[in-house]
Specification:
This protein is an alpha+beta fold and 335 residues long. The protein contains 7 helices and 15 strands. It has 2 domains: 169 residues, Fructose-1,6-Bisphosphatase, subunit A, domain 1 (Fructose-1,6-Bisphosphatase, Chain A, domain 1), CATH 3.30.540.10; 145 residues, D-Maltodextrin-Binding Protein, domain 2. The chain binds 1,6-di-O-phosphono-alpha-D-fructofuranose.
C-alpha cells in the first residue's frame, strides 16, 4: 500500500469526500502497479471461483475487492456493496456513506493487456443497508471510475460536472487533467457486441442495420464500430470523443435484462455521462430515474452522446412495420 504521500490534490475535491476519494486513489495507484507487473507477479487472470451471481471470479477481482474494502473501513463508509460480495457489508458503523463498487471491471481482459477498470457509486447511508442502494440512481452524491490502461486515470463527479485526473507515473499522485469533461455531441462511432445480433430486439437491430448501411442508408453517413469488452474503457473513449454504447437485453437465457449491473456499473456511469452532457437509458428511459430491484440486478444499458441515445429510444417508438422494414422504407429516419 502506498505510504501517506499526497495522492490527490484535496482542493479539487469537496471537503466531505477527500477521505473516501483519497482512499480509493491509494488502492487504485497500487492496483495500477500490480496490473503493470502482469505475469511477472502473481497470476492475476487465474480463475479462483464464482461470485454471488455465479459469474467467474479472477484472482484480481478478489484482490481488488479485498484491497478496497480494507481501505474504505477508515473513509467514513458505513455500507459496502460489491460485485464480489453477495450481501452488503458494514465497514464503519459511524460512517456516513454507502458505497457500491465493481472492484475490477473487464476481467476477461486481464491476461491480454487490455484496459480494465474500477467503477464506484456513493450515496448517503441509510440505517438500512440494502435500502441504501435500492433507491433512485439520481440519489447518488458521487460516482466515478478508475481506468488502468496506458495511463491510469480517475474520472469522477460530485454532482457539479466531471473531473478527470491522471496518475503521474513518477510522483504517484493523481493530477487534475480536465476540470470540466464534456461528452462530444457529435460522433460516428457505436459500440456493441455484434456477435449477439440474432438475439437483439428488432429496434436495436434496425438501429445497428442503419449504422452499417452508412451513406447508402437512412443515416446518410459512414459509421465506425468499437467493442473493447471493458465498460470503463468504452466509457472513457466516449467521454473523450463521443459515440454511443449499447448492451441491450437479448434473447439469451440470463440476458433478459442485458449483462450489466444497475447498482455498481450502470448507475454510476449514467451519473457521469449525464453530468458530462450525455444521455444514459435502458434503451428507452433514463437510468437515473430508476432503482434496482435487487443488489445484483441487471439492466439494458445505452449511453453516450445525447443525440445518439435519443435516437436509439426513437427506434423503440417506431411502429412495428417500420422498425422491421429494410432501411429504405424507414419512415422516421429517411435521409
Ligand atoms: P467481465 O468483468 O466479466 O469481463 O465483464 C465485463 C463487462 O461487464 C463490461 O465491462 C463489458 O462491457 C461487458 O461485460 C462485455 O460483455 P461481453 O463479454 O458479452 O461482450
Amino acid at each position: 500500500m502506498s505510504g501517506n504521500a499526497l495522492i490527490i490534490s484535496p482542493q479539487t475535491i469537496p471537503d466531505r469526500f477527500v477521505s473516501v476519494i483519497s482512499g480509493l486513489c491509494r488502492v487504485a495507484a497500487d492496483l495500477s502497479l500490480t496490473i503493470a507487473r502482469g505475469s511477472l507477479g502473481q497470476s492475476l487472470g487465474a480463475a479462483v471461483g464464482q461470485n454471488a451471481d455465479g459469474d467467474g471470479q479472477k484472482a484480481l477481482d478478489v484482490l481488488a475487492d479485498e484491497a478496497f474494502s480494507a481501505v474504505l473501513k477508515d473513509c467514513s463508509v458505513r455500507w459496502y456493496a460489491s460485485e464480489e460480495q453477495e450481501e452488503v457489508i458494514e465497514l464503519d458503523p459511524s460512517g456516513t456513506f454507502a458505497l457500491a463498487i465493481d472492484p475490477l471491471d473487464g476481467s476477461s481482459n486481464i491476461d491480454v493487456n487490455v484496459s480494465i477498470g474500477t467503477i464506484f457509486s456513493i450515496y448517503e447511508a441509510y440505517e438500512d443497508p440494502i435500502q441504501s442502494f435500492l433507491r433512485k440512481a439520481s440519489d447518488q452524491i458521487a460516482a466515478g471510475y478508475f481506468i488502468y490502461g496506458p495511463q491510469t486515470a480517475l474520472v469522477v463527479t460530485f454532482g457539479a460536472g466531471v473531473l478527470h485526473f491522471t496518475l503521474h507515473p513518477e510522483s504517484r499522485c493523481f493530477e487534475l487533467a480536465n476540470s470540466s469533461v464534456n461528452v462530444p455531441a457529435r460522433s460516428s462511432e457505436y459500440a456493441i457486441n455484434a456477435s449477439n445480433y440474432r438475439h437483439w430486439s428488432q429496434p436495436v437491430r434496425a438501429f445497428i442495420d442503419d449504422c452499417i448501411a452508412g451513406s447508402e442508408g437512412p443515416r446518410d453517413k459512414e459509421f465506425n464500430m468499437r467493442w473493447i469488452a471493458s465498460l470503463v474503457a468504452e466509457t472513457h473513449r466516449i467521454m473523450s470523443r463521443g459515440g454511443v454504447f449499447l448492451y441491450p437485453s437479448d434473447g439469451r437465457a440470463g440476458y433478459e435484462n442485458g449483462r450489466l449491473r444497475m447498482v455498481y456499473e450502470c448507475a454510476p456511469i449514467a451519473m457521469l455521462i449525464e453530468q458530462a452532457g450525455g444521455g444514459a437509458t435502458d434503451g428507452c428511459d433514463a437510468i437515473l430515474g430508476q432503482s434496482a430491484a435487487s443488489l445484483h440486478a441487471r439492466t439494458p444499458f445505452v449511453f453516450g452522446s445525447l443525440e445518439k441515445v435519443e435516437r436509439v429510444a426513437a427506434y423503440h417508438d417506431l411502429p412495428e412495420n417500420e422498425v422491421s422494414a429494410l432501411f429504405g422504407s424507414r419512415g422516421l429516419f429517411r435521409a
